[in-house]
Design brief:
By secondary structure, the chain is mainly α. Helix content is 86%, strand content 0%. The chain starts with a helix and ends with a helix.
Length: 139
């Protein structure tokens, strides 16, 4: 009965999207976070690149989803497709994250690197000024 229940629950996840956003976020974050920990602790620097590329791609994917997620949720099986994509990014043998980074994001980020640096710098300056102002009011 336990296996049947798990299978029914799994089918509900896939066909009705029930909990798929949570499952996709969990798989997209928990496994890579642990693998990143393992990469940091290992002496092999090769796995570091895999997980750094993963986080850049995953972050970009999440950023896009924040802007157009309301449209994407209408795409049939969107979270199932996203889950499969996220898993493909994670499997070191596929080097999916490095492929997406090298063929799509690297050029885009290099092209706008200066503008991004300027915008991030301004944002950090604003945050620092606000923190100093709040700190001054509290202290």
């Amino acid at each position: 009965y336990l296996a049947l229940g798990a299978m029914v629950l799994g089918l509900m996840f896939v066909f009705f999207g029930f909990g798929m956003k949570f499952l996709t976020t969990l798989v997209g974050f928990a496994v890579p976070a642990y693998q990143s920990f393992k990469a940091i602790e290992s002496r092999d620097a090769g796995d570091d690149r895999q997980w750094l590329a993963y986080w850049v791609v995953f972050g970009f994917l999440e950023l896009i989803e924040n802007f157009v997620g309301f449209i994407l949720t209408w795409v049939p099986f969107y979270y199932t497709l996203k889950l499969l994509f996220v898993i493909a990014l994670q499997v070191p043998q596929f080097k999916g994250a490095e492929f997406v980074y090298n063929h799509f994001l690297r050029g885009l980020l290099r092209k706008y690197e200066e503008e991004i640096d300027t915008t991030v710098g301004k944002g950090l300056d604003t945050a620092r000024n606000m923190a100093e102002e709040i700190g001054g009011q509290l202290g």
